[in-house]
Design goal:
The complex is a heterodimer of chains A (254) and B (329). Chain A has ten helices and ten strands. Chain A has 254 residues and is of the alpha/beta class. Chain A has two domains: 1-81 and 169-254, P-loop containing nucleotide triphosphate hydrolases (Rossmann fold, 3-Layer(aba) Sandwich), CATH 3.40.50; 90-166, no CATH class. In chain A, the strands form two sheets. Chain A has a six-stranded mixed beta sheet with strand order 6-7-8-3-9-10, sandwiched between helices. Chain A has a four-stranded antiparallel beta sheet with strand order 2-1-4-5, covered by helices on one side. In chain A, helix 3 crosses helix 4 (123-135), helix 3 (97-107) packs parallel to helix 5 (151-164) and helix 4 crosses helix 5. Residues 247-254 of chain A have low confidence and may be disordered. Chain B has 329 residues and is mostly helical. Chain B has helices spanning 4-30, 36-59, 68-87, 100-122, 127-146, 173-195, 198-215, 220-246, 256-269, 276-294, 299-312, 316-322, and strands at 90-91, 94-95, 157-158, 248-249. Chain B has a two-stranded antiparallel ribbon with strand order 1-2. A two-stranded antiparallel sheet of chain B has the order 3-4. In chain B, helix 3 crosses helix 8, helix 4 (100-122) runs antiparallel to helix 8 and helix 7 packs across helix 8 (220-246). The longest helix of chain B has 27 residues, at 4-30. Classes of the chains: A alpha/beta (254), B mainly alpha (329).
Chain lengths: 254, 329
């Protein structure tokens, strides 16, 4: 039990009459790479928003490292070690790449408000920023405004910012979306490097990447997790195949 | 890496501005236009208020339509304390005073506390609701002082003479002018450091994408409230100076049109440029001064001018001067 870092228990979420999550259960083991897959509209991003705290569940509970965080705000969850990479790139476009990373770094250094030191001379921020510039391979682009980066580079920066908060668990929402083959490979490499050093919840639409990377795979259909197991078992699961290949998938496509 | 050329250009523009303000009293003397010095003090005071508004409006993206209320509170702090001094009566157990160190301090404190309390409520809202709620708080302040008949109600409150500051004669317009200038420069130096600190970056980041700031683990609300309170306190000081300048405090000081005027100054000068709003204040007041000689409908000219600036100079007139690339100071 104590090996579970993030647990969602019978989460329900309704927007008006629309049930986007029904009896959603998920247990993620510490330092594992857990993948969440499912057809379009299955509610994967909603599930991540619930875990991150951007939306609050109608019922059910979420715990992080054994602490109940169901009612905790987004920023508190982040301070408790939860980081999120968005599907739709969400950066500070008027800031340079380095400034984006410094902001993320500063958010997790408990040194008060720091309203006097010039950020560009704040060593504690610069060091962390440089470390993650290197890690995500953006050293050459550090002074470019984030809004002027290519899509692939923005994805890299997203990763860097999430990592710069030094999380225990990283929630990745379709990090490969929109990347060319080269970018995809690079990102897979980075994810492999992080694997087993921290907990990763990887949400992907593309199942190929997932089966090669993940320790555990959960399949979500119509707002519900229908199976959780190793990639091999999931691949051969009858219900999963139905969900993806036809049969019940008529509804799942919308 | 910062573009060196832009950086230098800004230093040059700021230095010219500072030198110009420093020698203005000598210029007015040599052209025998000494009466103008009060007018220039007014520019400095409005510049201070507008620059403080820029902290929340330009940097924080919090569109406040009630910033003048803090000026009014600061102005009345000075007026009311002076009033009790003449009456030799007390207010809440304190004697009245004309000592600037006390009256200006009280102005900063009360405006700051009012900013903290109203900000704590207002900042829970966003967008249009924020505009409306700040406007509502400001109008509350306005009508509060209008109905305080003891302190003149809608007629306002006159000062017999200006405050005393460490033996300086504030009654002398040139001395007062230099004190306003010193305060403005000091504020700009402090604010410049603040907006370039990590704290300032969090504020600017919140304007761009507040949800992302929170996902990074920052309680953005607290940062916004802190800068809101700071800006309110500075506006309070501007109000205290204004009452000294005019030797008069009136509810008009916090009417919503005053808040609108401050906003126009920020827009004209350039949002998020800090120094721009001072330029904006100067331009607006100069336009009013000269155009009013020809027509009382001088706003007919101001309106189109403002539209042109907003449309074609993204970072205001200050942005045009320094090159608009370098937005965040």
């Amino acid at each position: 039990m104590s090996n579970i870092i993030l647990q969602a228990k019978s989460i329900n979420k309704q927007f008006g009459a629309v049930k986007v999550c029904q009896n959603f259960n998920l247990e993620i083991e510490k330092n594992s790479l857990h993948a969440l897959i499912g057809p379009n509209g299955a509610g994967k991003t909603t599930a991540l928003n619930l875990l991150t705290g951007l939306i609050k569940p109608t019922s059910g509970s979420i715990s992080l490292n054994g602490n109940d965080i169901t009612k905790k705000s987004v920023n508190v969850r982040s301070q408790l070690g939860l980081a999120r990479v968005f599907q739709i790139t969400s950066l500070f476009n008027e800031f340079s790449v380095r400034e984006n990373l410094m902001l993320a770094a500063g958010a997790h250094q408990k040194t008060g408000y720091r309203f006097w030191t010039n950020v560009n001379r704040d060593k504690r921020l610069l060091e962390v920023a440089d470390e993650f510039l290197e890690k995500v391979g953006l050293n050459q682009r550090s002074s470019i405004l984030a809004g002027n980066l290519s899509h692939g580079e923005q994805r890299q920066l997203e990763m860097g910012m999430a990592l710069a908060t030094r999380p225990d668990i990283l929630l990745l929402d379709e990090p490969m979306a929109g990347l060319g083959p080269g970018g995809s490979a690079k990102l897979s490499e980075l994810i492999l490097e992080l694997k087993h050093k921290m907990t990763i919840l990887l949400v992907e639409h593309d199942t190929h990447a997932v089966f090669s990377l993940a320790d555990t795979v959960s399949v979500m259909v119509h707002g519900e997790v229908i199976a959780t197991n190793t990639p091999e078992v999931i691949k051969n699961n009858q219900r999963v195949q139905e969900a993806y290949l036809g049969g019940v998938s008529g509804g799942a496509e919308c | 890496m910062k573009n060196l050329l832009t950086f230098n250009r800004k230093t040059v523009v700021n230095s010219i501005g500072l030198i110009l303000f420093l020698i203005l009293p000598f210029l007015t003397k040599s052209f025998e236009q000494e009466y103008l010095i009060s007018f220039f003090s007014m520019i400095l005071i409005y510049g201070l208020a507008a620059a403080s508004l820029d902290l929340i409006l330009g940097f924080g993206g919090m569109i406040s339509l009630g910033h003048a209320v803090f000026m009014g509170i600061g102005g009345y702090s000075v007026g009311v304390l002076a009033f009790h001094k003449y009456e030799s009566s007390s207010i809440f157990g304190f004697d009245g005073t004309e000592n600037a160190l006390i009256t200006w301090g009280v102005a900063i404190l009360i405006a700051g506390v009012f900013g903290l309390l109203t900000g704590a409520v207002s900042l829970r809202t966003k967008g249009m609701s924020f505009i409306m709620i700040t406007l509502a708080f400001a109008q509350m302040g306005y009508y509060f002082f209008v109905s305080l008949s003891k302190y003149g109600g809608s007629d306002g409150l006159s000062l017999y003479n200006r405050n005393e500051l460490l033996g300086l004669d504030l009654g002398d317009d040139v001395t007062f002018y230099y004190i306003c200038l010193a305060i403005l420069v000091l504020f700009l130096l402090i604010a410049h450091r603040v907006v370039n600190s990590h704290f300032g970056k969090v504020i600017t980041a919140s304007r761009q994408n507040e949800q992302r700031v929170q996902v990074l683990g920052v309680a953005s609300y607290r940062y916004k409230l802190a800068i809101y309170t700071f800006a309110a306190a500075v506006a309070g000081l501007a109000g205290a100076l204004m009452t000294n300048q005019n030797e008069f405090a009136s509810p008009e000081l916090m009417h919503w049109t005053k808040s609108g005027e401050l906003m126009v100054m920020v827009l004209l000068g350039g949002m998020g440029t800090l120094f721009g709003p001072v330029l904006g204040a100067a331009i607006l007041l100069l336009m009013e001064y000269f155009l009013a000689m020809y027509t009382e409908h001088w706003m007919v000219v101001l309106g189109p001018f403002l539209i042109i600036v907003v449309l074609f100079a993204k970072n205001g007139l200050y942005g045009l001067l320094v090159g608009s690339k370098d937005k965040n100071v």
